[in-house]
Amino acid sequence: MNKTKIAWTERTWNPVTGCTKISEGCRHCYAEVMAKRLQGMGQKRYKNGFTLTLHPEALNEPKKVKEPSMFFVCSMADLFHKDVPFEFVDRVMETIADCPQHTFQILTKRIDNLYCYLIEWLDYPFQSIPENCWIGTTVENASAKERIKTLAELKDSPVRFLSCEPLLGDLGALDLAGIDWVIVGGESGQQARKMSKEWVLNIQRQCAAQGVPFFFKQWGTWGEDGVKRNKKENGCLIDGKVCQEWPKILYDNPICTELIKHLAKIDSMPKNTYYKLKGGQQ
Ligand code: SF4
Fold first, then answer.
1. Residues in the chain with pLDDT < 50?
2. pTM to 2 decimals?
């Protein structure tokens, strides 16, 4: 359960590792590359490489972290993969409910399975996910847009977010009703596919028009100017500005306000973003 450099979270928690590919966004899966590398390094948790593996021994890990933290759940897997039994998802949710001091972010490409979990397994809306659990789905191109509608239906989730990363095409018109946060980023790595600046601006404009916070994570291997280079050099600025807003809930809730102060300390989140969002004091 490590601290992470992923700009929109703080820590990763992996009670499941390994996955199988389901859509275009998976083609150069970072988790697959990492899992194989960690297997090669002899790390126990990755002895099966990228084959889906449950880790019951990891279920209680967040309870050991006292400082309120933001956890990305299953950064090395998809919790709603068909081979993860709903009984095991229940155990993940129990830990989340037992840790109200933390915020948990679940990101899935299998939003229909998550929907089944809620409707068929939990008898939603009578029983739902814990209130410190954010739910997100990946929308990497226009054909993945149908996932947005399903996510928007989960009305009592505190934050429903989209991860448009790696952004692989123009998303066209977006209906963001019921969506609380949009993250956008380009692909990295030698094989990375190019992300056009116009695709990014199209999402940014629609977020602004529909009042949805927009978080631009990175250009990736292809820069704002369309040139291939090191992703660090390409950075995360759009027209010279950091565009990293957070969901509104973070500014309304005292626990989350503490969290955002904490997030502002992370190198990748410029401190002026926090102050700007808090009302312009610096
Ligand atoms: S769903 Fe996520 S973890 Fe699974 S293969 Fe696709 S990108 Fe990788």
1. 266-282
2. 0.89
